[in-house]
Amino acid sequence: MSHRKDVYIEKLGLIPLSEEGGFFVETYRSPEMIKDQEGTERNLFTTIYYLMTSELGGKNYPHRNKSDITHFFHDGWPAKYTVMTPEGKVEEFILGNDVLKGHVPRLTVPGGCLKAAKILLDESRQYEKFPDEIPFSLISEKMSPGFDYKDREVLAVSEDHERNSGITQFLFPKMEHRKDLHVRKLNLIPVKQEGGYLKETFRSTEMIQVPERDGGKRCMFTTIYYMIAPEMGGKNYLQSNKSDAVLYFHDGWPAQYILVYPNGEIEEYILGREVSKGHVLQLRIPGGCLKGGKILVEEEYASFNDEKPFTLISEQVSPGFELRDRYVPTLHEMKSTYPKQWKAMEEYIAPSAAQDK
Question: Has domain 4-171 been given CATH number 1.20.1560.10?
Fold first, then answer.
């Protein structure tokens, strides 16, 4: 690692989020619950690390949140923040450590205000004190009440530009790739341990009795969007669930899936749309079976010139998904349980699980 930016990304466990122009990780979600103005229960507060970097756009694009957000500067280049109140008043701040030059080490943006930011690369060269480094701004954010995606609103390009003058300079760049469009429009969240992005879209309100499960009750079913993406690992790492799951292919590159039954039997499928080549449009994963998947980037199926590879899937789990029903095997467990077959599964084992004993 030759740059502080890379050290922070590795040591803090930051994950890329192109729609935010950088990397982030949620570090704390208060277990204390409060009720917001609408009577909905919310976490008292949440905290994140956020690292803006020129590699992923270098801008925190215009958006507003219902909660107050306080930003704390840590390291790197200063960042210029533009804040617009609901009444249209625009203010600018430089978040940084050089208070003699007007920087503020801390900035609170009230709920309901639009905010946008960018790294100060070209405005004042004196800020660039780090020769040969990749520009970045490392910030902490505390939000209260705690962050919830439904409270977040991104400024649309079609909104009144004259009223929003001063902040439209930060608008999202033109989306050139379907992958980015899916991530933004479907509100997909990066989950590195899953090798891609996901979003739970429905959790049935109907409850059923499952006596053999921990807790005894489960919702009828849950559904998610899931996108495998190479920049996040490009693999749906080996895991099993007590419930049956069905995968449905939507768009992008096909994905190769391996199923490992409890008796050691292995089956392989290609989830994709070209049924003439043996693809399957839907794939059922029986409860208790291990599954692993990978995006087929280099094979002949990758016929989307100049696009970023991705595989967009829906997954329905019934009875509904609960984290306590999920099992991720370690490499040691795979070797001892499947001494003859584990080599076929090795590439699908999560990096963290490969280190476990």
Answer: no
